[in-house]
Design brief:
366 residues, alpha+beta, 3-stranded antiparallel sheet, 16 strands, globular
């Protein structure tokens, strides 16, 4: 019923703008301003209710291009010392990291240092076997290599199916190191500098007090994940697969630059976003997969990726038709209730923003 009321108000607002025949000076600017104000109120009402319902501890930002539609920080970066989360609090973003690795690979492709059809065995000894020998960089990027854990038997013949593999992305990180002669950390820090991401780092290099420590449990009964963020660089996770740290503001900036073709060339961006595989996600359902990025199968068009490091669930979404970013970062998870419960606020926010995007694009309001 709440959604129906919201839908009615939105449709009324948009239809009124369409039927207006008087053409005052700066009408478009006035109309755009009215839409923004309305959207700000709408997002605040709905997302605040999700914060309250789940006692959400973290940061959520919604931005339409450069315009802030919603931003809220709630709870603690450090539960023991009651240090509040703020706009510069840095979170572990888990597998949202994979898009940075994919972009680094594509940048090396643009420089002529590799091709996507190259076999990984050209660069890495651990792939120089009969079973692994045909795995290509393309297949590592979209998780169709058949690889699960490096060294184990393939799940299927390379290129025939989808199986999500962190080891595949850590292998891509090693390829980046081989073709550049620099560590993965150095490569990704150079990318951050180029993009102006001032508060992003890696688990290996991070050196600041403004970090959202990862916790298991809830605010009243919590357990800290020790050795964070350094543990992200260990074999269990790996920086290239899930070891990047960032903020809402940095990810918003990254989305705007990446999807406008200012990080990789427009033709390369098409390769990055092309649906070359499909997956059944345990939280978000059936979706397409590109290079380190997932996408809605239907409307609205959306590119996104979730991330989970113990205690740090995250979600980064970009809606290309309205240039809208939705970024959800948190630093506590009650694992005893399962990941489905942990990601319920993220899923509800995405469901809501999907709905708003569908209405906006149907009404041609950009």
């Amino acid at each position: 019923m709440k959604f129906l009321i919201i839908l009615s108000f939105i449709c009324l607002l948009f239809s009124c703008q369409k039927t207006e025949t008087i053409q005052p000076v700066n009408r478009k600017a006035i109309a755009d301003s009215g839409v923004v104000v309305f959207q700000q109120k709408l997002y605040k009402t709905q997302i605040d209710s999700i914060f309250n319902q789940y006692n959400f501890n973290g940061s959520v930002g919604v931005f339409k291009d450069t315009v802030e539609l919603y931003l809220r920080n709630n709870g603690f970066a450090d539960f023991k010392n009651r240090q509040a989360i703020n706009n510069k609090t840095v979170f572990a973003i888990g597998s949202v990291s994979k898009q940075f690795t994919a972009v680094l690979i594509l940048l090396k492709m643009e420089e002529g240092k590799l091709t996507l059809d190259d076999q990984a065995s050209k660069y890495l000894k651990e792939f120089q076997s009969k079973e692994y020998g045909n795995i290509t960089i393309h297949q590592l990027l979209n998780h169709t290599s058949g690889l699960n854990t490096l060294g184990q038997k393939l799940m299927f013949a390379s290129g025939k199916d989808f199986h999500y593999s962190n080891d595949g992305y850590n292998a891509l990180g090693k390829i980046i190191e081989i073709v550049t002669g620099k560590s993965y950390d150095e490569n990704v820090i150079d990318l951050f500098k180029r993009a102006g991401l001032k508060n992003s780092s890696t688990g290996n290099l991070f050196d600041s007090e403004n970090f959202a420590g990862a916790y298991l449990g809830n605010e009243k009964n919590f357990e800290i994940m020790h050795n964070m963020p350094k543990r992200l660089g260990g074999k269990e996770i790996g920086i290239a697969a899930g070891g990047i740290l960032s903020t809402v503001d940095d990810l918003h900036r990254w989305n705007n630059l990446l999807y406008s073709g200012k990080i990789i060339q427009p033709e390369t961006l098409k390769k990055f976003l092309l649906k070359s595989a499909e997956r059944q996600h345990p939280i978000f359902g059936k979706m397409g997969y590109g290079y380190g990025i997932m996408m809605n199968m239907g409307k609205p068009a959306a590119y996104f990726h979730s991330g989970y490091i113990k205690g740090s669930p995250s979600l980064n979404i970009y809606y290309p038709e309205t240039k809208t970013s939705v970024i959800i970062l948190s630093n506590i998870a009650d694992e005893e209730k399962g990941k489905s419960t942990t990601f319920k606020p993220h899923r509800e926010i995405k469901n809501f923003t999907d709905m708003i995007e569908s209405i906006s694009t149907n009404q041609n309001i950009n």
